[in-house]
Write a structure and sequence with these properties.
This protein has 238 residues and is α/β, with parallel strands linked by helices. The protein folds into 2 domains: 3-61, Hypothetical PUA domain-like, domain 1 (Ribosomal Protein L25, Chain P, Beta Barrel), CATH 2.40.240.20; 71-236, Alpha/beta knot, CATH 3.40.1280.10. Helix content is 30%, strand content 27%. It contains 6 helices and 12 strands. It has helices spanning 17-26, 83-93, 117-133, 171-178, 198-206, 221-236, and strands at residues 3-5, 7-9, 12-14, 34-39, 42-50, 55-61, 71-77, 98-103, 141-147, 158-162, 185-190, 210-212. The strands form 3 sheets. The protein has a 6-stranded parallel beta sheet with strand order 9-8-7-11-10-12, sandwiched between helices. Strands 1-4-5-6 form a 4-stranded mixed beta sheet. Strands 2-3 form a two-stranded antiparallel ribbon. A hairpin with a 4-residue loop joins strand 5 (42-50) and strand 6. Helix 2 packs parallel to helix 3 (117-133) and helix 2 (83-93) packs parallel to helix 6.
């Protein structure tokens, strides 16, 4: 069933113009159709009562647990092309709470290209649509790109950095993830195509990050994000 993020006032549902267009023109909604609506993190079953003007009324509250028992912050280094689109979308599907884009010395794109309002709107649209598709109750927060020298501004209970020079057994990664407790916030830092410099890793360690291995094979940056998030999501979703 189609899910939308909207506002609930009493028993009435208000959707944004883009969602109204999607419901009427793409989904071809009819009077009597049911949809799911999320407002302030709470999901509701609602029904289309009229088409023009569009009127939607709440039927009941949906009791469900869609979100993880922990908060995950993905700190993803900037990548070329549309790879960031992919990472943002899949990170949302895997349950992240926040995404921070990161500029490092080996990033091969211009940071300014990823700080434009146009890009920011695009990424947030991807997050909203991915949240609706996988029936989440919250849309992850997205932050504009920061430089790695400002890594100390990110606050978390557990801080991990995937470092290719640690390539080997995943035991350290699994061990760290299993220590995460319900309600904690965990940050996972993933490097760019060229990896992290030793100085950057040292900086992160000085700010409380533990280096972990994602296995014996060197993964592409976008693959590393999805792999790491899958492990954290799976082991924490108890």
């Amino acid at each position: 069933m189609q899910r939308y993020f909207g506002s609930v006032l009493g028993k009435s549902v208000l959707l944004k113009d883009d969602d109204v267009h999607h419901l009427l023109k793409v989904m071809r909604a009819k009077i009597g159709d049911n949809i799911e609506v999320v407002s302030d993190g709470v999901a509701f079953m609602a029904q289309v009562k009229n088409l023009r003007p569009l009127q939607i009324e709440i039927i009941s509250k949906i009791e469900e647990k869609r979100e993880l028992p922990i908060d995950i912050i993905l700190i993803a280094s900037l990548l070329k092309g549309d790879k960031i689109d992919f990472v943002v979308q899949k990170a949302c599907e895997l349950g992240v709470s926040e995404i921070v884009l990161l500029n490092t010395s080996r990033v091969i794109v211009r940071k300014d290209d990823y700080c434009s309002e146009k890009k920011f709107i695009r990424y947030n649209k991807i997050l909203k649509e991915a949240s609706e598709q996988c029936h989440r109750n919250k849309i992850p927060l997205l932050y504009r790109a920061i430089d790695i020298k400002d890594i100390q501004t990110i606050k978390a209970d557990v801080k991990l950095i995937a470092y290719e020079d640690n390539a080997g057994s995943t035991k350290s990664f699994l061990s760290e993830v299993r220590k995460i407790e319900k309600g904690q916030k965990v940050a996972i830092l993933i490097g760019p195509e060229g990896g992290f410099s030793s100085q950057e890793v040292a900086l992160c360690k000085d700010n409380g990050y533990s280096t972990v291995s994602l296995g014996r094979r060197i993964l592409r940056a976008e693959t590393a994000s999805i792999y790491a998030l899958s492990v954290i999501s799976c082991l924490s979703d108890k």
